[in-house]
Amino acid sequence: MRSNNARLPNLADEGIPMRSFSIRTHKHTQFLDITREVQSALSDLGIKGGVVTVFVPHTTAGITINENADPDVTADIADALDKVVPWQANYKHCEGNAAAHVKASMMGSAVQVIIEDGRLQLGTWQAIYFCEFDGPRSRNVWVR
Description:
Blueprint: E1 19-24, E2 30-33, H1 35-45, E3 49-55, E4 61-67, H2 72-84, H3 98-107, E5 110-116, E6 119-120, E7 126-132, E8 138-143
Antiparallel strand pairs: 1-8, 2-7, 3-5, 3-8, 4-7, 5-6
């Protein structure tokens, strides 16, 4: 990797604000619909159009967009992840939460959504889900 020692732009200096909000999870594995909180952050920011990034600054939690009409969908996702990444395995990470790190990496730490007229442009059945894999905990979500 080559460095040209150029200063990366600070987005706050460029007038691109950020909002954060906190959530509390109550289960070891939990999918929380945070769509309303993200929309509220957009309203607070006054963003009318473009693309928003929703970022989770944690290594044992992730974020995804999926169906919100049937709670069995997120239950099925959690079950599938448990089958692929079981809690008890021959992990090298010694803190006992290696499966949470793997699941968080599989889900990802950010999603982007188009904004039009100040509203998130999600499909009819879509919602933004915070994915907890090492709860219960207090967590943060960043919106920019």
